[in-house]
Design goal:
The structure holds two protein chains of two kinds.
Chain A lengths: L1 E5 L2 E3 L21 E3 L1 H15 L5 E8 L4 H10 L3 E6 L6 H15 L3 E5 L10 H9 L3 E11 L2 E8 L2 E8 L2 E5 L11 H7 L4 E5 L12 E6 L8 E3 L2 H10 L4
Parallel strand pairs in A: 1-4, 1-6, 4-5, 5-11, 6-10, 7-10
Antiparallel strand pairs in A: 2-3, 7-8, 8-9
Chain B lengths: L1 E6 L9 H11 L3 E10 L3 H8 L6 E6 L8 H11 L5 E5 L2 H14 L4 E4 L1 E4 L2 E6 L4 E6 L7 E5 L14 E5 L9 E8 L12 E5 L6 H14 L2 E4 L1 H5 L20 E5 L5 H4 L7 E6 L6 H4 L2 E4 L2 H11 L1
Parallel strand pairs in B: 1-2, 1-4, 2-3, 3-10, 4-9, 5-9, 12-13, 12-14, 14-15, 15-16
Antiparallel strand pairs in B: 6-7, 7-8
Helix pairs in contact in B: 3-4, 5-9
Classes of the chains: A alpha/beta, B alpha/beta.
Bound molecules: flavin-adenine dinucleotide and adenosine monophosphate.
The site of adenosine monophosphate has 22 residues of chain A, from helix 1, strand 4, helix 3, strand 6 and helix 4.
Chain lengths: 248, 313
């Protein structure tokens, strides 16, 4: 089995993102960047599948600026075999990302595409579903458990009501949730070794995708701030406050 | 003028409250027509509930055994088949809508607006990004039709049950792609009010320490008629099942009263409670970030304070 894993370069999840004063975007200069946490879990899963002997190759792919090579190198150090970068300095919206990924899927013919359930920058949660629609293949979103049985996979999904299990035929697209696994730390020797693994980079523009479905980002603003809170000294005072506010 | 199609969410027995909130969201589009489509099997009661939602023009019922339980790959082509003539297609921003609508978008070859929190006009919407640390206003260019959007249910009240729309049967038009099969589901016993729509929620975090200790949360919730929630750390530690998780990757909720116990207040958790009326935090660390958003903060040991609070009620 060949697995394709998508890795998006995003602002690290620990960074408290701020909107620029002029409302033209969010402040990303000098901010720590990382692999989207859900994508890291997708890659960890792919590596575990390979370690179990159920896969023989893992290809990681990213669409983004040249600096995304850092995240791809980290992916290689974790255990991916090859990396592909579709380079662009534009902000890529989900449909374009899905179309670009379809291109890679058609060239690479993977049995499985593992992706994050959402990118923690745009929080869209769309790209995996779009890719599977464009590809005409099954989707299993929000996966918290994946079990293979020949050319079928049973996927447990985290849904609002609890857990749901579906079975999909391969090839398929799966998007992963946090509880699927805990990604490993990369060790220094792996990072050195990863430098020798192949990383192919080409401009996204070469694919000739049009951006005419793109939405216009009109303005960015900080979220409404909650009013200053109050510290109460005792349970009795808390209960009084709640009563005054008509909440008890 | 806008002509809206809303994809109803239900569990085979009743209409989900998320649908009424999506209808409310659609009111902001100044639409001539708001139709609701219900897919599944044996849908009479569900269709009747949808027909009562204020502002709904027509409920279109597509009954077919192969449409239940809902699978995105089966439903998406049906939505596309019905989409003719509509300017907007909406679904709730629940795991149901977030699974289905982007697949519809893929089939139609367009982008989708995720998590609409405010309708500015029929093509302009506000939505949260970066776990709610920024709000972006997006405009859908005129060339794109229909406009696809999921509606963030915590941002809208439920549409009133005061209408009486007509109910119309429609038939399934697309083929089952046959590559995806429903296997089964498990959920909690459903005791107490539903977390997504409860007016009071009590949540526990990692500090609860065990599922036995988490009973302290359960019993306080019972006393308050509240739903139980949890942080991701509490879910990951196995104290409670995943469907109780509140936050970026759990449920986004807007209760009148939210009580966070032994929760530090990571941004991913806070994004789930931004719209709560009053936030109460109980935490032994006076510097915990939860106190920055709490309306009422009580510093101390939860194992001492929770029993005290229960007694005081
Ligand atoms: C991509 C991503 C998505 C995420 N999504 C979510 C999400 O949806 N929801 C979510 O909750 N988290 C989410 N997280 C995790 C989040 O970052 C935090 O790790 C998590 O919320 C911490 O949970 P906690 O507050 O229970 O635990 P901790 O951060 O460990 O906090 C425990 C708190 O309990 C207090 N405490 C300890 N003992 C006592 C006591 N005896 N009495 C009173 N107080 C006590 C401590 O002072 C501390 O503040 C996500 C993380 C990532 C990377
Ligand atoms: N530019 C990108 N490069 C690599 N992967 C991406 C990119 N955009 C989206 N993805 C993948 O699609 C998932 C969902 O993204 P989104 O739909 O933007 O929330 C992410 O977790 C990634 O796995």
């Amino acid at each position: 089995m060949k697995i394709l894993v998508t890795l998006k370069r995003v602002v690290d999840y620990n960074v408290r993102v701020r909107v620029k004063n002029d409302g033209s975007g969010v402040e990303t200069d000098g901010v720590k960047m990382s692999i989207n946490p859900f994508d890291e879990i997708a890659l960890e899963e792919a590596i575990r599948i390979k370690e179990r002997g159920e896969a023989d190759e893992i290809v990681v792919v990213s669409i983004g600026p040249d600096a995304s090579q850092q995240q791809l190198r980290t992916g290689l150090a974790m255990g991916a075999d090859r990396a592909i970068l579709l380079e662009t300095d534009q902000w890529v919206q989900p449909l374009t990302a899905a179309q670009a990924l379809l291109n890679v899927v058609e060239a690479e013919t993977p049995d499985l595409v593992l992706m994050g359930k959402q990118a923690i920058d745009d929080d869209c949660s769309q790209t995996g579903q779009m890719l599977s629609a464009l590809w005409g293949r099954p989707q299993a979103t929000f996966a918290s458990k994946i079990v293979f049985n020949d050319r079928r996979a049973e996927v447990t999904r985290e849904v609002d009501a609890g857990l749901e299990t579906i079975a999909v035929e391969l090839p398929a697209v799966m998007t992963v949730d946090l509880r699927l696994n805990e990604p490993r730390f990369v060790k220094l020797p792996e990072i050195m070794k990863a430098k020798k693994k192949p990383l192919d980079s080409k401009p996204l523009a070469e694919l000739g995708l049009s951006a005419d479905q793109d939405f216009e980002m009109v303005a960015f603003e900080p979220p409404p701030q909650r009013g200053g809170g109050k510290t109460v000294e005792s349970v009795a005072e808390l209960v009084d406050e709640l009563k005054t506010r008509g909440l008890l | 003028m806008a002509k809206v199609l809303i994809i109803a969410e239900h569990d085979g027995r009743s209409l989900s409250p998320a649908t009424a909130k999506t209808v409310q969201g659609a009111h902001g589009l100044a639409a001539d027509v708001i139709d609701v489509v219900v897919f599944g099997d044996a849908l009479d009661a569900i269709a009747q509930d949808a027909a009562k939602l204020a502002g709904v023009t027509c409920v279109r019922v597509v009954e077919d055994a192969s449409l239940a339980p809902a699978l995105a790959s089966r439903l998406a082509p049906e939505v596309v088949a019905l989409s003719e003539g509509y300017t907007h297609i909406l679904a709730p921003s629940t795991t149901f809508g977030r699974d289905l609508l982007p697949r519809v978008a893929g089939l139609l070859g367009c982008n989708q607006v995720s998590d609409v929190m405010e309708v500015v006009d029929a093509r302009t919407f506000k939505r949260p990004i970066y776990a709610g640390n920024a709000i972006v206003t997006v405009r859908v260019p005129d060339a794109i039709s229909p406009v696809l959007a999921t509606v963030r249910t915590a941002s809208f009240a439920a549409a009133a049950a005061s209408g009486s729309a007509k109910v119309e049967a429609a038939s399934a038009q697309a083929q089952d792609p046959g590559h995806t099969e429903y296997v089964g589901a498990e959920g909690s016993s459903g005791e107490g009010p539903d977390l997504s729509s409860a007016t009071v929620v009590v949540s526990g975090g990692r500090a609860m320490g065990s599922s036995e200790n988490f009973e302290l949360i359960g019993s306080l919730a019972k006393k308050l008629g509240a739903a139980v929630g949890a942080s991701r750390a509490a879910v990951d530690a196995g104290y409670v099942p995943n469907e109780l998780q509140v936050g970026q990757t759990g449920k986004i909720i807007a209760p009148d009263l939210y009580i966070a116990v032994g929760i530090s207040g990571a941004i991913q958790h806070l994004t789930g409670i931004k719209d709560a009326g009053t936030i109460v935090a109980i935490n032994k660390d006076p510097d915990a970030p939860i106190f920055e958003v709490a309306d009422l903060g009580l510093v101390g040991d939860l194992f001492q304070l929770l029993p005290e609070l229960e007694d005081a009620l």
